[in-house]
Design goal:
This protein is α/β, with parallel strands linked by helices. It is built from 15 helices and 28 strands. It has a six-stranded parallel β-sheet with strand order 12-15-18-21-24-27, with no helix packed on it. A six-stranded parallel β-sheet has the order 13-16-19-22-25-28. Strands 6-9-7-8-10 form a five-stranded mixed β-barrel.
């Protein structure tokens, strides 16, 4: 488990300059090795990711608890982006960032892309109370899996700007988040109340709402800097998804909740910090975010005012709560892929989908997907004659050996794998170093790293853990072959998940 935090800085062009992978100390060495040795990671464009492994962070730490760690707070100097470690996305990050900035400017705030320190951009007073943005995607349809996690969210439309939206813009899919919780929590609420209780203040504030039950939180968040102070002030917050999003979205319509969350004090602290920075550090030049936007034209001077609160005010006006926006990814099959991969079924689906992408060798780098490989078969010399490989939906890594009379369809085969003579592999993922014996038939399987499947075995929809040896002539369907059982099973599962992450990184 690790989080990825991007701190946002805005020099002359919009770009991310700081990327930090936050991971428990136990996983740091493996990640460092992958970043320095895996060719698919070493070839990534700049900036390179830094690794932070605080001593207080463990595998069971809540995602919101990460924001309380002193080392993490120290590295976040402005508004920031949070990504999960299991995300696969073709969605252009700059498009999401631009949609957030445009919507914030339209609401009355300007995102603070600056950072603190001598000779660097400072966060201005008007920038200290920006809203945030999260991303949700549909789980039904192609690639849907049983028991995949979903969320229960309520959204409301933003005010119509009556301005033309460029083709391909994400702005039509951005709404205000009114309510957010997990489906499991929703079931608990329904069981306790025998109905879903919803305050009248929701309808009063948002007459038009939309309820979504089949979408999932992608755990992609664009957060303003003040969220750090809110998390510190509310020690019960453990999860970004359930606690930060849940309470923040309700604070916009539930009277008195902002007082309970201490948002008045949070904003006072942010404003005072911004004023100190304005007077205490040099600013190279003023930046007009709207002037560089390609999707909107407006007079930025009307957004120069800030929300102000009297010292005697005990609770913020509902209209003064910075909005939490929700980008709802469209269901269009042609839309960019965005999916969290945290189960074996999703790993199989996403891997097979990526295998269908045309290679750079076939269509050229400009037209290729960011996930495309140089070639479909990285080591053609390893493929024996009289072998059938469907190149349109298969992907074979370096040093793969396929013996004669074997058939490979719709599969991903990792580096150093060996498929022996007469075997048939369909809709499978074989991780690095796996060996498939003679005359085996595998369908819909995930074979772990350095695992060995005995000859003449027939496996359907099975999972084989890393390093496991399956006896000859094994027949199984919907089975999980694990090396350890009982208490040691948790460690085995951790190793399996690590293997899945390694395969996706390729």
């Amino acid at each position: 488990m690790f989080q990825c935090i991007h701190t946002l800085r805005l020099p002359k062009l919009i770009k991310l300059q700081d990327i930090t992978l936050i991971t428990p100390h136990s996983s740091a060495k493996a990640i460092e090795a992958a970043l320095s040795q895996n060719p698919h990671l070493t070839s990534l464009p700049l900036p390179k990711a830094n690794i932070l492994s605080p001593g207080s962070l463990v595998q069971t730490s809540g995602t919101a608890e990460i924001l309380r760690i002193p080392e993490v707070r120290e590295l976040i100097r402005g508004d920031f982006v949070v990504l999960p470690c299991d995300l696969v996305s073709e969605l252009a990050g700059e498009s999401l960032l631009e949609a957030w900035m445009v919507k914030q400017a339209g609401i009355g705030g300007v995102p603070s892309m600056g950072y603190r320190g001598s000779g660097t951009y400072s966060r201005g007073k008007a920038d200290s109370q920006n809203g945030g943005l999260g991303v949700w995607y549909e789980t039904k349809g192609e690639g849907s899996t049983k028991r995949e996690e979903t969320d229960f969210i309520i959204t409301a439309p933003l005010k119509d700007t009556k301005e033309p939206t460029p083709e391909g813009s994400l702005l039509p899919h951005v709404h205000q988040l009114v309510y957010s919780t997990t489906t499991d929590t929703l079931k608990d609420i329904l069981e306790e109340n025998e109905a879903f209780p919803l305050r009248q203040s929701v309808a009063a504030k948002h007459p038009r709402t939309r309820i979504l039950t089949t979408y999932r939180d992608a755990h992609v968040y664009l957060f303003p800097h003040w969220v750090l102070d809110m998390v510190i002030k509310n020690e019960t917050m453990e999860s970004m998804s359930e606690d930060i999003l849940g309470w923040w979205s309700k604070a916009g319509w539930q009277t008195g909740l902002s007082k309970k969350l201490g948002l008045h004090e949070v904003f006072q602290h942010e404003n005072s910090s911004s004023e100190e920075l304005q007077h205490g550090s040099a600013i190279d030049h003023d930046m007009d975010i709207m002037s560089i936007s390609t999707t909107r034209k407006c007079d930025h001077r009307r957004h120069s005012t800030t929300r102000s609160f009297s010292g005697s005010e005990k609770s913020l006006q509902l209209s003064s709560i910075p909005p939490l926006l929700a980008y709802i990814h469209p269901r269009d099959p042609q839309a960019p892929l965005i999916r969290r991969v945290d189960t074996a079924a999703l790993l199989l689906f996403i891997s097979l989908r990526l295998a269908k992408l045309e290679s750079i060798e076939d269509i050229g780098k400009p037209a290729a997907s960011p996930f495309a490989h140089s070639s479909k078969i990285a080591y053609p010399a390893g493929v024996a004659p009289k072998t059938t490989i469907n190149k349109t939906d298969c992907l074979l890594a370096d040093n793969v050996t396929i013996e004669s009379r074997s058939i490979i369809k719709e599969s991903v085969i990792g580096a150093n794998c060996h498929v022996k003579a007469g075997s048939k592999v369909t809709r499978c993922v074989l991780m690095d170093g796996a060996v498939i014996g003679e005359r085996c038939e595998l369908t819909g399987c995930i074979i772990g790293r350095r695992a060995h499947v005995g000859k003449e075995s027939v496996l359907v929809d099975c999972e084989v853990q890393d390093g496991n040896v399956i006896p000859d002539e094994t027949g199984a369907k919907n089975e999980k072959f694990m090396v350890f059982e009982g208490l040691d099973g948790s460690d085995a599962e951790g190793e399996e998940n690590q293997g899945e992450s390694d395969m996706l990184a390729q």
